[in-house]
Amino acid sequence: MKSQSKNEQLLVLTDIIKVLAINKEPNNQYVIFEESVPPLGGPPPHTHPDEEVFFILDGDFEFVLNDLESPFKALPGSVVHVPSNAVHTFKNVGTSSGKMLVILTPGELLDYFRVIGSELNSTIDMPNLNEVPDFSRLDLAKVFKHAPEHNVNFILPDVIKN
After folding, report:
1. CA distance 38 to 108
2. Number of domains comprising the chain
3. CB atoms < 10 A from the CB of 129, how many?
4. Does residue 161 have a pLDDT over 60?
5. For the chain, first and last CA: distance in Å?
6. Which of 99, 127, 111 is nearest to 14 (CA)?
7. CA gap 89, 82 in Å, rounded
8. CA gap 47, 69 in Å, rounded
9. Is residue 159 part of a domain?
10. Tens digit of pLDDT for each residue in 40-72?
11. pLDDT score of 126
12. Closest of 1, 37, 36, 48 to residue 22, by C-alpha
């Protein structure tokens, strides 16, 4: 079993993803990364074909799995399994940065993160993860534009038009 990592770090929406291991061998594909999330950080509800396992290392998270009206807490030591194509999201509901270990199988979602994210090559590029991010600065057009080609589907509220 051969595993590789490029020490790659990406800023994806509000979160920093640090790639720890990639295995692209047939029938044994996965990606493992550490995800650091600022207060109130996290993605909109969505689905994708990759299966995900989240292991909470630090912080106070709230997850949603299939039922948007029933969020649940995930504290350090918690494991949250998200099956393929399940509606899900998470949010750091704490007052400081939270951290998770994430396993993706087969790991295709990383390709999407590389398209919509920004590479972090120096400490100057790093956002302060202990502060609530400025959500108005997120490039959501890019996020939504590239979602279909990576089989990511966002579940957004209906907007009533008058």
Report:
1. 24
2. 1
3. 19
4. no
5. 58
6. 127
7. 10
8. 16
9. no
10. 999 999 999 999 999 999 999 999 999 999 999
11. 85
12. 1
Q: Can you read off the two tokens belonging to residue 161?
A: 């038009």
What is the number of other CB atoms lying within 10 angstroms of the CB of residue 113? 20
In the Cβ-directed half-sphere of 102, how many Cα atoms lie within 13 Å? 23
Q: How many residues does the chain have?
A: 162
pLDDT tens-digit map of 99-141: 999 999 999 999 999 999 999 987 777 888 999 998 888 889 9
SS3 of the chain: helix, strand, coil, percent, to 5:
15, 40, 50
CA distances in angstroms from 68 to 54, 77, 94, 129, 143, listed in the order given: 18, 23, 20, 26, 21
In-domain check, residue 43: yes
Share of the chain above pLDDT 90, in %: 78
Task: Match 């594909």 to its residue by tokens.
Answer: 29
pTM attached to this predicted model = 0.90
Q: What is the CATH number of the domain that holds 88?
A: 2.60.120.10
Alpha-carbon distances of 63 from 39, 44, 67, 75, 113, rounded to whole Å: 14, 11, 10, 10, 20
